[in-house]
Design goal:
This protein has three helices and no strands. It has 104 residues and is an all-alpha fold. The longest helix has 15 residues.
Length: 104
């Protein structure tokens, strides 16, 4: 396989130049591929939505609730009722452990 090298055969590859001390900086030049991509606005939205209590600007014409007919739930009242129901389940007084052996 002592033929041409890849650079000679395909012509796609090239040996990169070497940078040494004292070489002058060669800028990239003016290689802008898409001028409008780095100037002006990047993305333009379809329009602006103003905040209001209306359904204007939303997809549905009516606000759909997640749970229909849901009621207000007061967590303090619910905890109090659960505590009262649990206290009704108790047969006697709260358990008090014995003091154990008394030291003289």
């Amino acid at each position: 396989m002592a033929g041409k090298t890849d650079m000679e055969r395909l012509g796609l590859f090239q040996e990169m130049g070497y940078t040494t001390i004292g070489d002058r900086y060669v800028g990239g030049g003016n290689k802008s591929f898409n001028v409008s991509a780095h100037k002006n606005k990047q993305m333009l939205p379809g329009g602006s939505k103003t905040r209001s209590s209306n359904q204007v600007g939303y997809f549905d014409s009516k606000f759909n609730r997640v749970l229909e007919g849901e009621a207000y739930s007061d967590p303090v009242k619910r905890r109090r009722q659960e505590r009262i129901q649990n206290s009704k389940k108790n047969i006697g007084k709260a358990f008090l452990p014995s003091n154990g052996d008394k030291k003289p």
